[in-house]
Amino acid sequence: IALTVEAGHVITAMMNNLNDQVIIADFGPSVTNANPTVNSYTVTGAGGGRGVSIAHACNMTSVFVSSANTNSIIRVDFGNTLQNAPTAVNSLNYVFSSPAGVSVINDDGKWLAVVPSNISGNVTVVSLDTGLTNNNPTLLTTYTLPGSVNLVGLTTLKENSDWYIAIADEGTTKFFSINPVNACSANPPVS
User: Fold this and answer.
1) Residue of 86, 95, 150, 151 with fewest CB within 10 Å of its CB?
2) How many angstroms separate the CA atoms of 29 and 169, rounded?
3) In angstroms, what CA-CA distances link 93 with 51, 101, 130?
């Protein structure tokens, strides 16, 4: 599940992996609203969707979906707000190994997608360069998490100039963390 605030509205996005639909819930000004406006949209090309990430850039709002069965990340574009219906659905031209989540972040003007693998214990970071609509990402790095079995879901956080990545492992019931020194670091601290 992903959460954002747009024009004073609390909005969540989540993926229903049973019917491959992204669900957008608009809670209005408070997440405690018991009756949010809910819309569901089919994500063409998705299979076994697991995680979502919301990204905003200028007049573009996108939801990125990890699709385990198709080994892909799919971008669903909503125009300038998640309160719109999707305007486009595009799969990124990069093969991920059983992606089990996605976090799309902006680091100094560059968009990066951080993607854990459910079967390899790796976390892949690709660059979308300066635009969310780039369908041809380039590999920046892959982190290996020794001892991980089935990574699922992740979250990213930037504090000052430091990035932190937290990932759950459903096979070991542990959390793993990565603190990349920089996006291209081959030897980040892993715990």
Assistant:
1) 95
2) 34
3) 18, 17, 16
